[in-house]
Amino acid sequence: MGFTVFIILIPLVMFLLLSFGSKWLRPRAAGVIGTLGMTIPALLSYYTAYRYFLADAYVWPVWGPINTFSMEWLRFSDNLSIEMGVMLDSISIMMLVVVTTVSLMVHIYSLGYMKGERGFQRYYALLSLFSFSMLGLVVATNIFQMYIFWELVGASSYLLIGFYYTRPEAVAASKKAFIVTRFADLGFLIGILILSYYTGTFDFNKIMDVEADLAVTTMAGSSFLGLSAATWAMALIFMGAAGKSAMFPLHIWLPDAMEGPTPVSALIHAATMVVAGVYLIARMFPVYLFAAPDVLTLITYVGLFTALFAALIAITQTDIKRVLAFSTISQIAYMMVALGVSGYGGDFGEGYTYSMFHLFTHAFFKALLFLGAGAVIHTIHSNEMEVMGGLRKYMPITHITFLIACLSISGIPPFSGFFSKDGILSAALRYEPFVFGVLLFTAGLTAFYMFRLYFRIFWGVDRQYEKPPHEAPKSMTIPLIVLAVLTCVTGFIPFSFYVSPDIRPYEVYIHWPVALSSIVVGGIGIFIAMWFYRKASDRPAHLAAKLSGFWKAAYHRFYIDDVWMFITKKIIFRGISGPVAWFDRHVVDGTMNVLGTGTLKTSEAIKGSQTGRVQTYAVVFVLSVMVITVLVLVL
Amino acid sequence: MVTMEHYLIVSSIMFFVGVYGFITRKNLLAVLISIELILNSVEINFCVFNRFLYPEHMEGMFFSLFGIAISAAETAVAIAIIINVYRIANNIDVRHIDKMKY
Amino acid sequence: MGELANAIIFYCLAAAIVGMSILAVTSRRMLRAATYLLIVLICTAGLYLLLNYHFLAVVQLSVYAGGILILFIFAILLTSSHGDRAYSHDKGRVIAGIITALAGIAITTWITMKHHFLYGENPALMGDRQIDMKEIGQVLIGTGKYEYLLSFEALSILLLTCAIGAILIARKR
Question: Which of A154, A162, A349, A435 shows its CA 20 to 30 Å from the CA of A81?
């Protein structure tokens, strides 16, 4: 299946074409070319999935990885080199499908959404760059390739968040996203170096070869601060994953990243890039499980806290994209928890399977939510809930698709979110009831804030708009409909048959007690939201007033941003960077300045002696020759 | 008896008189005249060394011969330059030709 | 007898050379300076004759006195529009020059007197040996050891270049 390399190369070619050809291409032409360019990788990915899972199935009965392409990229020494290649296994193919589908939808959607914007060609070029990097990331054959593309998606995310670079908020948000994720990536890089130092390889297959137990045996001996080298390496790698997937406390960049164009938020900050962290953990899962089980526990509790925490904040936000951003954080944390509670082999791998399943379904319904929100923003020209209400009459297609997505994320059958969430909950119950309880509560909160959003946009106050809102153009509604259909049907894919930690298929059933409890909790959330927000009333204000302390704290995102600002500004900048900068400016630079000005002053002073009069030189020359002669003769 | 030293002293006086002229004169042509003196004294030295120390050879004489030719060439170019300078600056005082000084 | 005549002639020439040299570099009139230079050059030719270099003396007279001096006089006449005396001497410079010159003469004289030269095997030769034109001509265009074809040709090219260059520099645009 050598053609798979073109899935990655075509977006790269598109990027080069669009960025160098932007002078000659009309905006519309650039958009159409970019969209067509994305169609081919999407079709190739579907064909790859068909071949791998259905037609050939030549890895039966295990879904082993196959490398369809590989080339040496950098050779450091005889046994250390970095390769670039394409590795196919069930999760990478799943990611290929997700990334290309959502990317294609966003490409089509942007034709309508971004129409008439300045820098339309640049926008499409950057989308192609992002698609290229994300696809390169998911098919990485080795951890270093993954790291390279990991940084590339970070860079393209930075560029797209700062797309409206004339707005200071957008510039600040892009910088924040870049710096926070870079900080996390530092941990990732150190983790990679530790891991490869002990195992002597970057290759995923070699690291994860469970029979050889490479990671376990080679890293058992050494330890640091009471933890083994493997634990350190995997914890640092998780740090990178937490940065990219916006886990507490590195989540602060994601809500601000909503300054970018809405389709970008849908693609990068909901469906694909932010789940890269989950994907990374899943990719390395056997190593985590066998070499560093402590880190898995850490992942579980970090994820659990983040899920609850983000859901609480989401309840209070009024910017609809911020609500969705915190919802994304919460849902990704769900996937993290699922990975953390997962075991190995058969039913025990349920957490892993459903983490990937939730990633899959979440990508579609969260992209749908963002694109629906984008359609609303497109016509209202505001992100604030306060100016919305009663939109269901004006935007029927957006309304219906948004409702489907809300039901799905709330875990109501038969939509896809129900199936994946149910699996996660049952895996959590198997692990520990406490985890299960928190997740269930979070599910209720999720239903509540999603329907709060839904009711306040589409129901609530019947506003009189100056300019009546209108339904989005076809280029925007078609992706909505496609994604809504996907949201309805993807839940029925027998995921455990294709994805499991030990790459052997197994069967799972719906655990009805768990499922029922989640449906009930979801239903309660929805009804409370309905009671509060269905009609215009002062009930929410009353409740907010009663819980004013909590409400205010949650509205300000529990002041985590301020904590970070305190740490960076007060402690790091003032306490460490300040003195260092002073030293640099006054001592290091001072020395150099003295040297420089000293030279300048000296040459100014002695410049006059170089008169340019040959006769003076002649006097000096002849006298000097005589002096030397006398010296030679006398001495 | 006239020995080699007599010639050498005469030529060295000529040389340093040339040096003196080179140092003190302001007129470019006078400077050039001083240079001719210096060259001439050197040529005398060549001949003297040849005649007194190695009378069977002719190298010194030929060196003088070539030296005369070279000084002719040098004078031709120098005078051309001086005339050009005169045209531009309207005098040939070395103190005034300092337009390209720092 | 010959010795004495030689000595007398030498001292006369030496005195003329020294005196005329000093006058040439101190005279304020350029035309006179050139004339003093001419006398110095002619006396130098006399020295060559004393040393029995007849050809060299002829060259000295024809090239220096006949050629270069004419150039000098032309140049002086072309450039001295406001008289020859326009250039005053600068005291400090004159003192520096005098010191340099006197010190230089003293040192060289001292060295010359102190040093013992190894004279040629047969000092008698110096008075007798005439170099005839045929020999000079053959050495000048010969290619063997101690022969100067290459220098001769290089010099001819140098002179040609100088002639062209001088014309190019000095011609009116």
Answer: A154
Q: Does residue A391 have a pLDDT over 90?
A: no
**For residue A182, what are its two tokens?**
């870079």
Q: How far apart are the first and last CA of chain C?
A: 62
Closest CA to A97 of A140, A43, A168, A58: A43
The answer to whether the Cβ–Cβ distance between A626 and C104 falls below 8 Å is yes
Q: What's the whole-number average pLDDT of chain A? A: 83
Cite the DSSP H helix spans in A120-222: 120-138, 143-161, 168-199, 204-208, 214-219
Residue appearing with tokens 């050494």: A222
- Min Cα distance B16 → chain A (Å) is 10
Q: How far is Cα of residue A609 from the mean position of the Cα atoms in its chain?
A: 67
**Distance spanning both ends of chain A, measured CA to CA:** 90
Query: Which residues, listed in sequence order, are joined to residue A80 by a DSSP beta bridge?
Result: A77
Q: Do A612 and B23 touch (CB under 8 A)?
A: no
Position C66 pLDDT exceeds 60: yes
User: Cβ separation of B23 and C93 shorter than 8 Å?
Assistant: yes
Residue among A607, A611, A615 whose CB faces B23 most closely:
A615
Backbone angles phi, psi at A253, to 5 degrees: -80, -30
CB contact under 8 A, A611 and B94: no
Nearest to B27 among C87, C94, C139 (CB): C87
CA dihedral angle for residue A365, residue A370, residue A376, residue A377, rounded to 10 degrees: 180
In a domain, B34, yes or no: yes
Residue B98, chain A, CB below 8 Å: the answer is yes
Q: Is residue B14 part of a domain?
A: yes
Instruction: Count up the domains in chain B and report the number.
Output: 1
Tally A–C CB contacts below 8 A: 16
How long, in residues, is chain C? 173
pTM of the model: 0.66
How far apart CA A498 and CA A507 sit, in angstroms, is 10
> What CATH number does the domain containing B22 carry?
1.10.287.3510
Of A615, A622, A633, the CB nearest to C104: A622
Cβ distance of A615 and B101 shorter than 8 Å: no
Question: How large is the ipTM?
Answer: 0.89
Chain B CB contacts of C169 below 8 Å? 77, 80-81, 83-84
Place of tokens 């119950």: A429
Query: What is the three-class DSSP state of A408?
Result: helix
Question: B98 lies in a domain?
Answer: no
* CB nearest A615 (choices: B22, B98, B100): B22
Strand (E) or helix (H) holding A566: none
Query: Which chain C residues are Cβ-neighbours of B30 within 8 angstroms?
Result: 25, 30, 33, 87
Which two three-digit tokens encode residue B4? 């080699």
A:B CB pairs within 8 Å = 20
A150-198 pLDDT, tens digit each? 999 999 989 888 888 888 888 888 888 888 888 889 989 998 888 888 7
pLDDT one-digit tens code per residue, B75-85 = 888 888 888 88
- Show the domains of chain C with their CATH numbers: 2-131 (1.20.120.1200), 132-173 (no CATH)
Is B99 an interface residue toward A (CB < 8 Å)? no
Is residue A477 a contact partner of residue A320, using CB atoms and an 8 Å limit? no
At A80, give phi and psi (nearest 5°).
Answer: -135, 110
Cβ–Cβ gap C100/A629 under 8 Å: no
Closest by Cα among A242, A251, A343, A279 to A143: A279
> Which residue does chain B place closest to A611, by CA atoms?
B101
Phi and psi torsions of A473, nearest 5°: -65, 170
| Structural domain boundaries, residue B72 | 4-89
- CA A586 vs CA A87, A574, A593, A594, A597: distances in Å: 53, 17, 9, 11, 15
Alpha helices in A432-473 (DSSP H): 433-458
Looking at chain B, the number of H-run helices and the number of E-run strands are: 3, 0
Closest among A99, A168, A87 to A127, alpha carbons compared: A99
